[in-house]
Amino acid sequence: MNIKFRLILMNFMQYFIWGSWLLTIGAYWFQNKHWSGAQFGAIFSTMGISAIFMPALTGIIVDRWINAEKLYGIMHILGALSLLSLPLVTNPTAFFWVMLLNMVFYMPTISLSITVAYSALKQENIDIVSNYPPIRTWGTVGFIAALWVVSLTHSETTANQFYIASSVAFGLGIFAFTLPKCPPLYTKTGNKSFVELFGLKAFTLFKTPRFAVFFIFSMLLGAALQLTNAYGDTFLQDFKNVAEYKDLATVKYPAIIMSISQVSETLFILAIPFFLRKFGIKYVMLFSMLAWVLRFGLFAFGNPDGGLWMIVLSCIVYGMAFDFFNISGSLFVETQTTPEIRGSAQGLFMMMVNGFGAMFGSLTSGFIIDEFFTLADHSKNWHGIWLTFAAYALVIAVIFPFAFRYKHTVALKQATQHI
């Protein structure tokens, strides 16, 4: 089977699993279980907690001891079992622990899938900068497909979303063992320092100013991503409580509307090689930050009727906000680090984005929304919420160009010059 097709299938299933519940768990939480917003913030923090240590830990393991594709498969099979257990949970505390277990298994598979893909492409002498983004678009297609399946089966507020995710996770776990071998590249020859012996060399990247700043802003942008994941679908669901909007298709099928964001992703992913070659990682990340400002600002003023165009435009802008940060960031890490720390470096990037960033975003947003934007009747002031998030993204965008002093001269320009 063609290697590109196999990696396409891997990416499709990888993000189908996440798309089955990530944007709709809020509807399940608030409309099915009727648990609190603060507790929901804690649930979303499980992604951050697990991503703080698991991607970096599994990165070290695949750099030194076990094939990346094998560990990738094991993690998905265990994740499938934990997803299968979620519908059995009857209280928010237990739900937190089961979801944390699921995230412990799932979060490292994101960086592991990148490691496996980059390794497989390099084995075939296929350039990663020009060929990986089109392959990765199929992950976004998988995410969209999951949203449509969940929405059209009316599973947004039911436990079916977890059963759907579990079945695909198990299938991917089995399929992973058929992927090209991705063995550890660590060599045991010569005298090794403590850092090298324990697989911690990737953390020395923080000594390089451009990497230190890059990782810090990756964390801050990771928080922005968490905000839209946690509250986007719930925002649209809340329009059901407004008489003039409750019968509109936008309100009846919010997950489908949100899937426009993923459709936009597929287009912006394909544009990444051009933008990296033309502008470099610094300005590509800046474009991402400005796109987050627009994403949140348009949500603040949009509605399912006359303001529907703002919601749709916000979803389109999301493609740039997400891709120009996540995909470009992983390519930056791959092209700026040595092969022997490929897994742990990608794990470190994932730790900052989906670990510290996600935890910071989920816990802080949950507190702020409960304290300042939840009204007496328990409804939410979404206008104020989205404007606050937009202001946060704007502050990051203003500071970033002055803090990240990286010139686009050799690294990624050389890697993309043939595109």
How do you describe this structure in short?
Helix content is 76%, strand content 0%.
Structure description:
With 419 residues, this protein is mostly helical. The chain has a single domain, classed as MFS general substrate transporter like domains (Growth Hormone, Chain: A, Up-down Bundle), CATH 1.20.1250. It contains 15 helices and no strands. Helix 9 (209-237) crosses helix 11 (254-301) and helix 11 (254-301) packs across helix 12 (308-336). The two termini are 26 Å apart. Residues 189-199 and 414-419 have low confidence and may be disordered.
Give the arrangement of secondary structure elements.
Layout: H1 3-19, H2 25-33, H3 37-64, H4 68-85, H5 92-123, H6 128-152, H7 160-176, H8 194-197, H9 209-237, H10 249-252, H11 254-301, H12 308-336, H13 342-372, H14 382-403, H15 411-416
Helix pairs in contact: 1-5, 1-6, 1-7, 2-9, 3-5, 3-13, 4-5, 4-7, 5-13, 6-11, 9-11, 9-13, 9-14, 11-12, 11-14, 12-13
Looking at CATH, the homologous superfamily is MFS general substrate transporter like domains
How would you spell out the order of helices and strands? Answer: HHHHHHHHHHHHHHH
Report the span from N to C terminus.
26 Å
Q: What is the residue-averaged pLDDT?
A: 79
Binned strand content: under 5%
Specify the number of helices: 15
**Using DSSP, what is the number of strands?**
0
**Percent of residues in helices:** over 70%
Radius of gyration over C-alpha positions, nearest whole angstrom: 21 Å
**CATH architecture classification name:** Up-down Bundle
Number of spatially distinct domains? 1
- Overall structural class, as computed from helix and strand content, comes to mainly alpha
| pLDDT < 50 stretches | 189-199, 414-419
Give the CATH topology: Growth Hormone, Chain: A
CATH class: Mainly Alpha
Please describe the biggest sheet, giving its number of strands, its sense, and whether it closes into a barrel: none
Q: What is the overall shape?
A: globular
